[in-house]
Fold this sequence. Notes:
Largest sheet: 6 strands, parallel
Number of helices: 16
Oligomer: single chain
Amino acid sequence: MVDVWLPYGKTDVCVRIPARNLLGTIEPKEHPGATDPKAEIERALKEPIASKRLNEIAKPESKVAIVVDDATRNTPSERMLLPVLSELNTAGVKDENITVIFGCGTHRAVKPEETTQLLGENAKRVKVISHDASAPDLVYIGTTKTHGNKIHVNRIFAEANVKVLLGDVQYHHYAGYGGGRKSVLPAVSGTETIRQNHALLVNANSVAGNLENNPVHIDMTEAAQLAKVDFIVNVVENKKGEIVRAFAGDLEAAFLEAVNLVEQMYRITVDRRSDIIVVSAGGHPWDLTLYQALKGMDASLDAVKRGGVIILVAECIEGYGNQVFYDWMTRLSEIKNVEREVKRNFAVGGQRAYYLLKALLNHQIILVSSMPDFYATSIFKLKTARAVNDALNEAFKITGSASRVWAMPQGSNTLPMYRAPEESKI
Length: 426
C-alpha cells in the first residue's frame, strides 16, 4: 500500500492505494518560495514591468482604490498590501485616502473576522469595504468592443484617481487564468456585467490554461482597460502556498509574465489516463463549498478515461455554496437544458451546473465531504462516501480491481494534460 495525503478543509486525509494500482501523484513542479516574501514584493514594486513605479503614478492628493481577493481565495493579501501601502505613502498619499475593496464579484461579503485574517493590522489603517455586485450606485464605464458587454463597476473603484489590483495567478476553468484583469471583472463588477461575461464560457476556447481566442479572457481584459487600471501586483505561489515570485506593473504585461511562470510550475503532462483519479480541491479555502471545490474536479478530467471514476475530496463545510447552482441542478437537471439556459438566460452560478453535468456524461463522481447525502445525491447527482478509502473501494467495484489510479492533491492549482507517448517524442 502507498499512503497519499490529501488536503481536506484545514487538515489532511490519507488514502491508501495498492502499489500495483497506483500510477503516481500529479503534483505541481517543486519551486522554492522566496526567502523573504516581503522583500520579493518590494523588489517587484521597484522593478515594475512596462510601467512607472507606483510611487511615481500616485500623487499626494490621489484617492486610491486597491482591489484584493475575498475569502474564497487563498491569496496572501496581507503580505502584498503592506509594501503597496508603503509605496503609496512614499508618494505622499495618506492612509485616509486609500480604500481597500474586497473583490467579491457575486460572492457573499467578507465577514469582519475574515477581514482581519485576510489583511491583518493593515485593515485598521485604511478604509475597507466589500464589493456588492447588486449595489444601486454602480458606475457605467463603457462597453467592450469584442462582445458588447456593458461594464458597470463599483463606484469607489470607478472614482479613484489611482486603481491598483492585487491578486495571485493560477489556473481558472474558463477564464484561462485568475489574476490580472479578473480583479475588475468579475471582482468589482455588477451582476449583469458578470452574467454577460460568464455566458461566454460555453465557447470551446474558454478553458483552463488558454488565453488564445478565449472570449471570457478577452472580455475581462477589455473591461479592465475601460476601467483604466494603473498598476497591478500579482504573485505566483508554490504548492505550499509560499510566494515564489511577484510581478508588478502594467495590467497586461505583468500578468502575462506571471502566466508564464504558472505554466512552468503547474501544467503537468501525463502519458496515460487512469481508470480512477482521487483529487483533492486543495483544502481550505478551495473546498469551503461544493461550488468552489468542483473546480478541482474540472482540472482532473484530462487525466482520467471516459467512463472512469473521479473521487473528489472536499470538506464543503459551507454546503453547496451558490443558490443558482442549486436551482439549475434542481430545475433543469439535464445538460442540454442547462446549455440552452447558459446561452439564453445565463445567471451567475449556472456555469457550475453546466460543468458538473458535462463531467457526469462521461464519468462517475464520488464525493467525500461533510455535506448531507440528500444534497450530494438527490440534487447534484453525485455518489458519496464518508471516508476516502471507502470511496476508493467503491471505485474499484465500478472499474475493476486491476484499475490504475492517479492521485492529485492540489486539484484547484494543477492542470494535467494528456499527451500520448508518441506525441511526447515529436
